[in-house]
Amino acid sequence: MITVHLEPGNETLTFPKINTAQQLLNKLSLGQTDALIIRGDELLTPDRRIHYGDEITVRTVISRG
Amino acid sequence: MKCKRCKALAAVALPSHHTGFCPECFLKYFADQVERGAHKHKLFDHSDKILVALSGGKDSLALMQVLTDLEYDVTGLHIDLGIGESSEAARGFVTAFCEKRGLPFHVLSTAHYGLAIPDVKAAVRRPICSVCGKIKRYYFNKFAHENGFTALATGHNLDDETARLFANTLRWDARYLGSQGPMLPGEGKFVRKVKPLYRLTEFETAAYCFLRKVEHGKAACPYSGGATFTGHKRLMGGLERVSPGMKIQFYEGFLRDGRPAFQAACKEGTDALVECAKCGYPSMSETCGVCRTRGMVAEKTAGR
Ligand code: SF4
Ligand SMILES: [Zn+2]
Ligand SMILES: [Zn+2]
Fold first, then answer.
1. I want to staple A59 with a disulfide (CB 3.0 to 4.6 A). Which of A23, A36, B46, B218 is the partner?
2. CA–CA separation, B139 vs A10, rounded Å?
3. Do A33 and B240 touch (CB under 8 A)?
4. Contact residues on chain A for B10, CB-CB shorter than 8 A
5. Host domain of residue A17
6. Where do the domains of chain B lie, and which CATH numbers do they carry?
7. How far apart are CA B16 and CA B5, in angstroms?
8. Interface pTM (ipTM) of the complex?
9. pTM, to two decimals
10. In the structure, what pLDDT confidence band is assigned to residue B224 with cuts at 50, 70 and 90?
11. B23 to chain A: which residues are within 8 Å by CB?
C-alpha cells in the first residue's frame, strides 16, 4: 500500500501500487510543476521510484488570493 | 535524474530550463535568478532600505529569506486584515518565521484604522478583493514612505505576472499594460515597487520553501473566489508544458518590445493625481478610495 496525503485540503488516498512519481502525478491529473512530491525530508523528481509502504505528500503549488 | 551542476541526485526537475538540480544547487539557482532580475531591471542594490510585504504565504516568506541570504537590507511588514482564523494563522506564520530567524518585522492591523476586511465587505458593493487589494497597497506604501524605505518588495512570481499580463492583454488594457512590470519607479509619495521573484515560478518558490525549511501558510483566504486568475494560470501552465520556457519569454518579451509602446501611449494619464483631502496621499479624486471606504465602514457600523 502507498499512502498519499494531498495538500492543501488534507485529504488522504491510498494506492495498491505506483511505480514512479510521474505515475502518481498522472493518477492525480497533475503536471510536473503543479505540485511538490514529498517523501520524508526529500523532494522527488518525476523519474524517482515509489516503493510499497511509502508515505508521500503531494503539495499543490498554485496560490489563490 | 542528476543535478546539472554537481551530478548528485536531483531533487527539483525544471522542464522549462531542460534541467534539474540537487537541493544545494537549486537554492543557488534560485538566488541567482533573483540577483539576475534585480540587476537586469535595476530593482534595488545594497544601499536600498527594502520593505518586504509578508502575507505568510510561500512567495513572500521565500522572498524575505532569499533577500536576507543575499544580504540586502530588509524589514518585513505584515498587514493583518482581521479575517478571523485565516488572518490569525497568517500572522502566526509571519511571526514565527521572523522571530526564529531574528529578522526585523512590523505588523499593521487594518482594524486599527476602521478597516477590518469583514466590515469592509459588509459596507461596500464592489468585489471585496479589489477593495482589499487597494487597502493593502495603500498601507504598504504609506508605511514604507513614512519610515524611510526606498523600495517596497512583494512576492509576485512568474505565474502571477504572466497570468496578469495575459488578462491585461485579453482586454488590451493600455493603462495596466503600460505600468506592468517588475519595477515601478517611485514618485512623490509613491515608494518604488519591486517584484524580485518575477523570474521564478510558483513551483520554484514552493520547492525553495521546502528545501530552505520555510514554514508557510497554505490555506486560501475564505473570500478568494480565485476563478479568473487560477484559470489563466492553468492555461499558461498548459502552454508551458507544450513549449517549455514560454512563460519567461512571453514576459521578458513584453517588457522589452511591448511595454514601451503602451507606456508612450498613456503618458498623459498619470499626472491627473491630486492629494487626498483627508490623508494627503495621491488620489484620483478629492478623497482617495481608502478614505472613502473608511467613511462607508464607519457609517455602516454606526447604523448597526
Ligand atoms: S482573497 Fe481577497 S479578501 Fe482575501 S486577502 Fe486576498 S484580496 Fe483580500
Ligand atoms: Zn548539485
Ligand atoms: Zn485618503
1. A36
2. 34
3. yes
4. 45
5. 2-60
6. 23-212+245-271 (3.40.50.620)
7. 16
8. 0.95
9. 0.95
10. confident
11. 43
